[in-house]
């Protein structure tokens, strides 16, 4: 389906709300000094990997990360709206204890069917999975053969589900630390960390 040689998948650098464990969804908070350093390390690690396109979520934390990497690689950033993070709806900006106080039992219902459960007023992973597929098709229309995609942990799981043909439960069990770039071979459907 995809004709890429390699796909590089990165998450935005650490943000202030990540440190506080406050759900961001489509809200935003600035990169921390550690997050800025992560973006610079990614840029250094990718410098000799023949990346030929940088595609980013429109959210500020992803754009800030992409700008650092794109500048280092001499590549313009293409914003792909479909790469935006899953919409947390009424949970946006809340800590877990705030969610439990305002929406009793909702996190338990979520754990019963994480893929289909929908954030109140927001999206489900199933919705985001569909959007991830659209994002990948859009990126595939570009001339890039070795694209770097900078997004978020939650939609990143669905990007990996599509790229690696994973079962949703397998994809949902994956994490994507801020300091890791995954290298994905879309033909063999193998993934490893960029060292």
From TrEMBL:
Record-linked CDD domains: HP_PGM_like (cd07067)
InterPro entries according to UniProt: His_Pase_superF_clade-1 (IPR013078), His_PPase_superfam (IPR029033), PG/BPGM_mutase_AS (IPR001345), PGM_Phosphatase (IPR050275)
Isomerase found in the keyword field: yes
Entries under Pfam families matching the protein: His_Phos_1
PROSITE patterns reported for this sequence: PG_MUTASE
Keywords: Glycolysis, Isomerase
Top-rank taxon, per record: Bacteria
Gene3D superfamilies for the chain: Phosphoglycerate mutase-like
PANTHER family found in the cross-reference section: BROAD-SPECIFICITY PHOSPHATASE YOR283W-RELATED, HISTIDINE PHOSPHATASE FAMILY PROTEIN-RELATED
UniProt-recorded name of the protein: Histidine phosphatase family protein
